[in-house]
Amino acid sequence: MNRSPRITRSIDWITVGLYALMLLLGWINVYAAVYSPDNIINIFSWNINSGKQLAWIGTAIVIIIVLLVIDYKAYESLAYPIYAFMILLLIGTLLFARPIAGSRSWLELGSIRIQPAEFAKFATALAVSRFMSTINLRHQNWKEHAVLAGITLLPPLLILLSNETGSALVFGAFLLAFFREGMSPLILIVGTMAVAIFIITLLVPKLYFIGVITVLLGLFIWLNQRLLRKLRIIIPIYLAVVGMIFSVDFFVNNVLQEHQQNRIKALINPEADPLGYGWNVTQSKIAIGSGGILGKGFLEGTQTKFDFVPEQSTDFIFCTIGEEHGWIGSLLLIGLFMALLSRIIFVAERQKTVFGRSYGYCVASIIFFHFLVNVGMTIGLAPVVGIPLPFFSYGGSSLWSFTILLFILLAIDTNRKQDLTR
Amino acid sequence: MKYLESRKYIIQAIFFIVGAVFAVKLFFIQVLNSEYKHAAEANAIKRIVEYPSRGLIYDRKGKLLVQNTPVYDLMVVPKEIKGIDTLRFCQLFRIPLEEFRLKIAAAKVFSYVKPSPFLQKLTTEEFASIQDNLVEFPGFYINARTVRGYPHQSLSHALGYIGEISARQLEDTAYSEYEQGDYLGISGIERQYEKHLMGRKGVKYRMVNVRGIDKGPFKQGLYDTASVAGQNLSSTIDLDLQQYAEKLMQGKKGGIVAIEPSTGEILAFVSAPFYDPNLLTGKELGNNYMALSKDPNKPLFNRPIKSTNPPGSVFKLVQALIGLEEGVLTPQTGYPCNQSLVKCAHGHPHPSNLYLGIENSCNPYFYRVFQSIVNRGQSKNIYRDTHLGLDQWREKVLSFGFANKLGIDLPFENSGIIASSNYYDKHYGKTGWKYATIYSLSIGQGETGATPLHLANLMAIIANRGHYYTPHLIKGIGNTNSPLPQFQQQKNVMVHPKYFEPVIQGMSQVMSSRWGTGWHANISHLGIEVCGKTGTVQNPHGADHAVFAAFAPRQNPKIAIAVYIENAGFGATSAAPLATLMMEKYINGSIAKNAKRQWWEEYIISGGFYKNTSH
Q1: Between chains, do A180 and B33 touch, taking CB under 8 Å as contact?
Q2: Does residue A422 surpass a pLDDT of 50?
Q3: ipTM exceeds 0.90
Q4: CA gap B186, B161 in Å, rounded
């Protein structure tokens, strides 16, 4: 078949290059995170994470080849079956998985453990994009919106039931993809305001907060009498906000489990309990902060060397970068992610089908969300939830799922010229 | 769609804003704020765990049953042992060089900077001999722990043992307070009362710099928590009686449970073959456990609560009680010893009343009793009638604690079985069975199963004339003098107290009458009126098992007991004398010095009854 030349000619090499660069840097950093100066183990050694990560990278390359060889049309037509299979897998995990550290999210086959929640992300992206190619979000058809919400919310609901809040929260990223495809910006604005209200409610006594809002609203109306006519809209919104403030308070204190409450407390004021819930964040900031401008140098990170930072090769991998390569290194990492995200959006925009474009935005949003929360939690701007930094955090499930997520897009993309002839 | 295309700029902008915010925050943390740099260099915090002493266990008279013995773990931090004289170390500690290297390599794999065990469970003597030399070897230090010690050699099954927590348990959030290497109860009372015995670990935070050197307490110990010692337990067991019972049971297989009827407190709990509890503690625990688990006689098997067998003739007492309660039996009811119904091995005259039926343990008698309970003409259809009768009967039997866990404070209790109508329906079909199919239930054989605990509890019920307290091994926790609440509730059976007296009279005649099956073990000449019942459990694989259940004295009973000896043949000449020896010991304080009692004691200890069986 004359498929391979076409693939090598039209695959987006910039994205592939960025991907390969990130994998390489990620691999080296995992080694730095587990490195110990008086006990030097070969970077390729099977016994430590860096060796295992190499194995995961190797298998990822096999996956990439498979993904690119498959007929690109298959992704669109198989979107729903793949999604359905993933739902079954999630339900299966919920029923049969053994509780490990409080959550039931791993399936075990012998000594191999996989986390279906990781793979649910690309399956949902496929299903969502497929559905969006059949509707038009601008039409504000509430039935269509409901189905879309259903597709998007079912996996995180199942994941929440198995006690893995972090993975469930990621699904909020889809909102950005919907926005691009025509969803009313009101949702985004309302969403942002809700998050803002949530945060302020945690920081400020609620009666004080409500009082300030009421006074401000009154002032605003008094200054602008025309608004009096719109009171019918303003009053319900005001009541909704007040209701939200009370429910946030109730939710945090009465619904969240204790370790989740602690994560929020750790976010707001980690110094209050530096040995308890504030431990992760405090240690993380110390590690990153001690890097200075240029960092301590490769393999010289003392905090990460002596195992002070918990989970330092997985969720807190950024600490090694911050400590060993300083602010310059951190900037480079941020730059890499910005470049990758921009390129993905560029690729998404040049798709001729709604399916392709929508899927591309899903990919960008998901990667962005991980970046936001993972780096954010290491520097104390986001609560500690267990989600990995794409391509950098050690872990087979995460590496495979992001590779699949990204390369499905590239596979669809290689055919952008082909569509012209159809 | 062109309109929507401009949204891509908004999304891009969101990405870049986030990136910028991070860059700025990082600038603050990494470049402007030097606090973190200093924090990293100056101190980090080391968490040291303090282990509390585990609760002690005493017997009912205050004698110590379980104590804590100190042991020492020699720990090593691989990073810190640079430059030690390896040869001298191996000489002093008498370890081959190769073993030293292997252990250090293993420790390095675990963690280069965290301590891992090098030599575990050193005794006080071993520790004392190396203590002075430890200064020569930086990187090695001692972790003091306690393990259990027993100032006697009894009661291993009831007490249980402790060991290291398993990997599976560590992953379970129910065990979130435990860390790898912690000890916890694995069986027996140690496991059942783990929460009370374990106490609470204490934590000390010390400041340590990046090179690992201790720099003093963190925030003057503000975050330190003191360890809380475990609570002591007061057991119901009488150690003297327990040791005596084990002496009587040596070389035999079986189980004994002795209960104080008025409270449900267990006075003695024997599973034979037994072993010295000191075997399952300390360094040799692993090896000893392997040896015990491979022993074909199964010494680790907790027979009093796990060995389920058909109760045999002892069950006839339950039939009598239910028959009286249902009104189909009176103390004056007589039945001929009709061997065509079921064989009767006892060679006695026809029982003309209930007392004789019990005294001679007549099988055909109870065949008729059970039949009259089950087929009472409640339905014209014989199958339906048997169905109804059996289920109503079963409900009453279950109120005696059969076919259910009694709820003793030990793990892994077996519930036993009493077949129900559903069972027979499944096997024979709804119209495939009637009394002729199930008659073996009348004499405690067939589809039944009970543990020695069930039988001892039955004796307690009869001794109390109609009620019992759940049998338990612990009567006091910590400072309080009472057991857990579920053991303080009186449980009544579905037979009126007034029907117990005739059955008790029959049980007394078992011992006192010349024709009674328990006559050999009579001790009324010592001033104790025993009420009992013998039994023989059929064993298709060898000699029958012997059972004897009884309580004494008849008025104001002090002790209810069930004895079960495997492959001993007739209960009358093995289990019964053993039981009365125990009762004599408990009530009178010691065995009478006359020749007869001494002879019986010697006979039982040596297992003379085995000669009478094809054992």
Answers
A1: no
A2: no
A3: no
A4: 6
